[in-house]
């Protein structure tokens, strides 16, 4: 699992900072999460292949989270994309993108599939053989979802030395991988655990931005390997957090602690702060494994 | 008059090139012309004061000419702008911007005034004591206007030595500036031309992008000091120009020559070309005073 931060600042794009966008690489998918203005340039700078993006998840319809989407859709068209593009986001997103295409009289030559979200309960919005994606209902000024990305458990791994020693026919390998006990060539029952190893541990990533401090997300994100939680403010501006429905670094750390996550990544910093050390300083006493998002930074788990 | 090119490439923003946007400084106005994605970052990089922009002119509703507008409007709001913002552009622009504000539940705290354009004839769309702005109907795949910016003639300038020598009362200075003959303190008629000099010559700038070769714009842009005319293609791709309703460098030069303009600036280059020298090479034999637009370049006239 690889997380490429394209932008992790709030509000407005500036010369050296970008609004929210990140790419999660998981089980051969490249999921784009949010798409602030300038995302396509950030994709280029970070050498991410446009064609590999087939699913885009938009948390909410504030400009700093989706004003780059119309341009990206249009660039896909100019690149003569053929493959489907799936977009998951709040109701209304389809209308605004469709209106822009209509006014430009420029329709995509590939299929654009909108999955409009309206539920205030967590729901499964994407699933294939390897990955599941759930919404995480957040508490912001407009309808907002975070997203939980979870690998599905893989198959058990054959211990080839033991398998051969136990004289098991190749025809039974598939069954072994699925966890079954099998008979060997001599008619003896071979226990699965004796000839296989556990599958790779499944990994999970939760993206939570933008949101006020919201404890009811904890059951959804409990035990995730990595949590990206917004921390727009430092303590000195804590009074602004409930009013604007954002969180402080300290609150993000409290959520991480209570949800027993592996690593907490902070981001969505207000552009009023010159340097990010204070975010670490305020979150760290509450939760130990804190990382700071930065534009262009790549996290591998 | 000062023209700051923020972006002069067609189609998509890339790592080092930007879609169309430029700022014209004329008689103390800062007019923003087109607003492709990333324009607000380009404004910052070029150190242009956001608050000084009070009028934005949008040529047409292809994304590379206005996808930065919603973000800029939203940034103005975050900067707690108070002054009115006037936006001139094709019908439909108001709908799409309003829909985006509605979905974000974020309305401007300053007055946003849309001037929606529908005429296919050149019309006066802005006027004050010093400047006039006219549309230039262009020929593109969607409804498109160029814009003609013209200074108004200023007042005649007093030649103070002659004025004093002629014993003219200060009360008549205003009349002299307006071109009238006046009586001096001795009751003698003083001819205006004997005590004043001509006003500064008026300057004019025409922005024409995007458009196919269109001779009927010539009467509108005739004799302008500076013409920015799109040149998406070189001769090797001339066959694409009529189909996509764009122009070649050669066609831009032909328009410049026939309209007897002072300087031709080429721009809106297709991103397929690695270097711009060929644009100059193809335009130059037809029209001598050619300049190449480049992102960040400033022209002073």
Helix segment tally of chain A: 11
Low-confidence stretches of chain A: none
Proportion in β-strands of chain A: 25-35%
Describe the largest sheet of chain A. 7 strands, mixed
The helix/strand series of chain A, from N terminus to C terminus, equals: EEEHEHHEHEEEEEHHEEHEEHEHHEHEE
How would you name the oligomeric state of the polypeptide chains in this document? homodimer
CATH topology of the largest domain in chain A: Metallo-beta-lactamase, Chain A
- The amount of helix of chain A comes to 10-25%
Features of the shown structure:
homodimer, 301 residues, alpha/beta, Metallo-beta-lactamase, Chain A, 2 domains, 7-stranded mixed sheet, 11 helices
Helix and strand layout, with pairings?
The structure is a homodimer of 301-residue chains.
Chain A: E1 2-7, E2 21-26, E3 29-33, H1 39-45, E4 53-57, H2 63-66, H3 69-78, E5 85-90, H4 93-104, E6 112-117, E7 124-127, E8 131-137, E9 145-151, E10 157-158, H5 160-165, H6 173-177, E11 182-183, E12 189-190, H7 192-195, E13 196-197, E14 204-208, H8 218-221, E15 226-230, H9 240-244, H10 249-258, E16 263-267, H11 277-283, E17 290-292, E18 298-300
Helix pairs in contact in A: 10-11
